[in-house]
Design goal:
By secondary structure, the chain is an alpha/beta fold. The chain is 45% helix and 21% strand.
């Protein structure tokens, strides 16, 4: 398994223990982790406290710049449109994810966001790194909620 996706899964487990949707994110630059986070929407009572958004904020602070050129993000779940827009605006180059979203409309919108347009660079690479553990965590979480 990819070592960075493993770290994102560790973050997702933290979210699960706290009763959050088990999603983790890790941002990497020059083969080093510059930020990691997990969902904290319930804890922070904040709709934008997704793993990706928190990781982005940490990365901006770490490198003292909002431009995250030459970085990659590893996420346990395909990003929602809000997170996709922030990822693209931050100029992250590569997106790696473990589990596809079940929300086809959200995925369609995210894919449109990730496409190149006149104002923003497109994401260079979007790659699925299949992971059963991440998939099972999400399935278990939503089965318990329903």
């Amino acid at each position: 398994m990819n070592k960075y996706m493993e770290k994102a899964i560790i973050e997702a487990k933290k979210a699960l223990k706290k009763g959050e949707v088990p999603v983790g994110a890790v941002i990497v630059k020059n083969d080093k982790i510059i930020a990691r986070a997990h969902n904290q929407k319930e804890k922070k009572k904040n709709v934008i406290a997704h793993a990706e958004m928190i990781a982005l904020s940490k990365a901006f602070k770490k490198i003292k710049n909002w431009r995250l050129n030459e970085t990659s993000i590893y996420i346990t779940l395909y990003p929602c449109p809000m997170c996709a827009s922030a990822i693209q605006q931050a100029r992250i180059e590569n997106v790696f994810y473990a589990v596809d979203t079940q929300d086809e409309e959200a995925k369609r919108i995210t894919n449109l966001i990730f496409k190149e347009n006149k104002n923003n660079k497109s994401i260079k690479k979007i790659t699925k790194i299949e992971n059963e553990e991440a998939k099972k965590m999400l399935q278990m979480f939503f089965q318990k909620k329903r």
